[in-house]
Amino acid sequence: MSLLLVHPPVTKACEPPAGIARLAGMLSRHGVEHELLDANLEGLVYLMTRPGEGSDRWTKRAYRNAHRNLTALKERQTYQNSDRYRRTVFDLNRVLEASSVSFAAGVSLSNYQQHNLSPVRSGDLLHAAEVPEDNPFFSYFSKRLTELLCNNPRKAVGFSLNFLSQALCTFAMVGFLRRYFPELTLIVGGGLVTSWMHKPDWVNPFGGLVDHLAAGPGEHALLSFLGVEADKEALYRPEYQALPGDEYFSPGFILPYSASAGCYWNRCSFCPERAEKNPYVPVPVHQAIADLHSLTAQTRPVLIHLLDNALSPALLKALCLDPPGVPWYGFARITQHFINQDFCEALKRCGCVMLKLGLESGSQDVLDREHKGVNLEMAATALATIKTAGIATYAYLLFGTPSETAETARETLHFTAAHSEYIDFLNLAIFNLPVYAPDTHELATQPAYEGDLSLYTGFVHPQGWHRGLVRQFLDKEFKRHPAVASILRRDPPFFTSNHAPFFCDGL
Ligand code: SF4
Fold this sequence. Notes:
This protein has 507 residues and is of the alpha/beta class. 41% of the residues lie in helices and 15% in strands. The structure holds iron/sulfur cluster (SF4). Iron/sulfur cluster (SF4) binds next to helix 11. Iron/sulfur cluster binds next to helix 11.
């Protein structure tokens, strides 16, 4: 059995896809012949570099400079001048927009949309499969998949579908293969498929099209499909050699690595990880450190992206004792450890350039009701201690949770403004209620408001703090506060936290 594993468009193409790299590590360990295709990276480059002109001055300039801008995105000096960086990114994005408009689609550096088609409606995904020619990537993937499968016939093709922004393109590719290579076994797995299949009312609508939908860690599903006897608990080191390391849209190779699946805290209300009952499965700390050393030696990255939902204190301590020798960043919960100056300085010395921190709210009441396990006073000290140690902070705020009101949202504004000198970057999100969250029954929900595959449901906010009001507050008040506005201006467009470390000390 030989396999082709595909990472479909569109995701941010600044680092190699961790999903198919992990599967490649597993397949190599079991001696299964395979090939990887980052169709996202190749597809975006294809759209950005094929001839075109555009009708207005900006689009003409963007097309003319596309090759040069792609090169600039891989050069460190571009990141030393934020205006130059922004112009480069916006110009490349302009080409993507212009090249997809005739398909009634909107391709960007971080998203994919298609007019009249929704990635949360199974009927629309089946339609995308029926008419793959309507997809703006069609001329790329039809040629590329044909070439790969004719040169090297495969028994099966697996798609790694993790984000909504990949769904319509994945099904367009699946539809193409089903039509022209009917003998192939088609498998679709990944985080998004896992979430779909965890829905309590799940009924597979893709039976006639996709041979296998795989929920959960792709390794286990693939192994059982391949009929390979293997330890279900085995953890595999990802393999990146088969991916084009120097083609990604970053100034050097970024090494993605997951030291755990799930979350060690797993208590926040309405967290999708908790709602889906995803178990916490950490890679043993000594193995994670050994993996990082080995992968660093192999791939020579300029930056390590730790993908965990929350880096465990045990792993952070181990990194301090045995640093990977390369700058790194990742998500951490705000815990007591970060009010310790020595600990933060040790983190800085072991390469930590930026921490992503789920602060969520500046109201103690909201934090308590949402079971964040964060004390605001401690959070304020942690932000200052982390920043003083020379580590940048990327704070995540969540508005419109069932326990928030307009007053408590304003407390978040006051907290953010009061501590703005310790916050380098901000991510603002509006709360979505997972359809199957354990606490959903406490709220008056509205019927599925987007489609049968929607992972979220509408709800009547118990305090009347509805999405429209939240959005208005964010646009008219929160984002306009001068302290907040100046933080938001720093955020790298499209690439956000993935490129933010390149604007921080230590890189
Ligand atoms: S820390 Fe993050 S991943 Fe963990 S339970 Fe809370 S929201 Fe979910």
